[in-house]
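Researcher: Good morning. I'm working through a list of sequences from a screen, and I'd like to move beyond sequence-only analysis. For each chain I'm collecting a predicted structure so we can compare shapes side by side. This is the next one on the list. No need for commentary yet; just the structure.
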Amino acid sequence: MLTVGQSVTDGSVPSSTGTFTYQLTPKTAGAPMPSGSVSGVYTFTVTGTGSADVGITFGTAGIYTYEIRCIAGPGGIYDNRVYTVSVYVESSLATLVVVYAGDGGKAADISFEQSVDTGAGGSGGSSDPGSSGSSGDPSGTNSSAVSGSDPSNAYSGSSNAYDAPGTGDAPINLVVPKTGDYSDLMLWLAMAAVSGCMLLIFLFRCKPRKEE
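Model: Good morning. Structure tokens for this chain:
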């Protein structure tokens, strides 16, 4: 038995609607076919997300190869991948199924990804990341501009993301205090030294002299 899986989405929402038609054709002459085959071709449908089991009865040992593909879907849109299935039938009639994808590599299963457009799935939001901000940045700007490794560039550029609140166009001017400038300190020390000298001279001159 072969199982054909199908997933259907309407926009970004899983859908239970949409009927797609599949076809199983033999690649090995005389390969057994499911009941209901017409002119050596078996056709079946799958609706919505689900699967279909294709039963084949093997009476003789051998290797039988088939192809499975989707041939029709709503609006003529469907998954056009093709799977090649090799069924190894032992003398005991035990079977081993090997599935190959279109590129020749082995596939884990036979699965098709289909889509329909009924309008019920919605747009799922804008696909343009620049059209709106993330939940943590309602302004819609890239907050990484202030979190980079170079803080000197954090407020550069013409973006209004860092405008002063309420102004809309007046940029914030950052005043960075100077460090390592001791000119004012030296001036105060010099003035203190001069003042101290003048105080000592005044006290010395005002001290009463002893009579000889």
